[in-house]
Design brief:
257 residues; binds octanoyl-coenzyme A; alpha/beta; single chain; 16% strand; 11 helices
Length: 257
Amino acid sequence: MAYETIIVETRDAVGLIRLDRPKALNALSRQLIADLNHALDGFEADDAIGAIVLTGSDKAFAAGADITEMQRLSYVDIFMHDFVAEWERLSRVRKPVIAAVAGFALGGGCELALMCDLVFAADTAKFGQPEITLGLIPGSGGTQRLTRAVGKAKAMDMVLTGRLIDAAEAERIGLVSRVVPAAELVETAVAAAAKIAGLSRPAVLMAKEAVSRSFETPLSDGIRTERRLFHSLFATEDAHEGMAAFLEKRPPAFQNR
Ligand code: CO8
């Protein structure tokens, strides 16, 4: 399907979504979020897809919510439409999502990256929550997911001053998983996604669910969730195949069941 604001393709078992509003540095308009959500729904429903990569352009992953759209909105507009609610779709995707970030990931763009499971950054990437400079605060999880990812000291620095950080600092503080040369960004992310997509899908989904749970629950509940999911994997053929393949010194043939 052709979209107005994104480009969608598949690379074998990997779904690739490129944000594509170059004139506005991929600012996240309502149309873009609707397009993104539609593409995510499609990849979630497609059994042939095992992992998703979300990327932007060389210049911008996304420069935040569309300020032109937001500036026109009143409190009643924004409250009655529960503005931002639809952005959360990405955080509910069950398949792993890798953000491949080059250039600016600011405001809602940084928050979108934080909703992904892995963040790969080009050495050109710049992350920030500059909403405070607009008289706003982050509205799509930036005060919460960012703080859980990098801790209070760095989150307060970014949220209160609006300071942008480069890829090296983002990696140092735990905001990104890997930094790679810009020219290799998308290929590296697609290769990692392909590797994940080739593993046992039930195990991958449960691994994602277990790690994600740690953001929402006390340790004892998280450990219990992990144990239940670990136990339940013994009901899958894939787990027995994976262990047998190791012992027989051959590659596993996972069937996703
Ligand atoms: N919204 C709308 N248009 C934008 C945005 C944006 N966020 N960012 C850039 N643009 C547009 C510019 O207006 C410009 O358009 P034009 O050519 O028509 O003038 C074009 O993109 C290119 O931008 P610049 O000329 O500014 O490019 P520079 O390379 O000089 O600067 C920057 C790049 C530093 C990224 C700069 O554009 C900038 O500071 N952008 C705004 C960043 C920002 O403040 N982001 C936070 C937005 S608020 C937010 O995200 C709140 C999220 C809360 C949840 C929201 C849920 C909907």
